[in-house]
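chain below, 147 aa
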Amino acid sequence: MFGPGTICLLFRTLALTYYNQYEQMEWGIFPHQGNMMDVLWERSALKHVAKVKTPTMLMQGENDSDVPIAGAEQYYIALRDVGVDAVMVRYPREGHGIREPRHIVDSIDRSVRWYVKLLSSRGKISERGPSRAARGEFSVARRKLSR
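prediction:
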């Protein structure tokens, strides 16, 4: 996925980052030429948000210069507006990818809780969450990361 925001916003932003001429290389023209804005909008996740039914968790670094957080914020608001169960997590100091050990652990914790919540509400797993063995393995990994 290119990012949760509009593809138009993404391609405009990519021109300001190290990709520079990405649009011209990928499409042969810039977004403002020909009917490219129409093509990009047609492929935008934001255009089709009303069709979304899947609960969605967005995790985004606040300093991501590849996929700016504004796109994730727009998509999150749109998901909530159409009634989709959505959560957005912003990680300070992070760019394109989560690298700080505490943020990595937080993203894993949140992901596990998110899936436990969703799967238990559908009767797929026990509300107690993962098995004791899985929780034990996770606790060991957590201790190692926080040192």
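The mean pLDDT is 78. Residues 101-121 form the longest helix (21 residues).
thats it, cya
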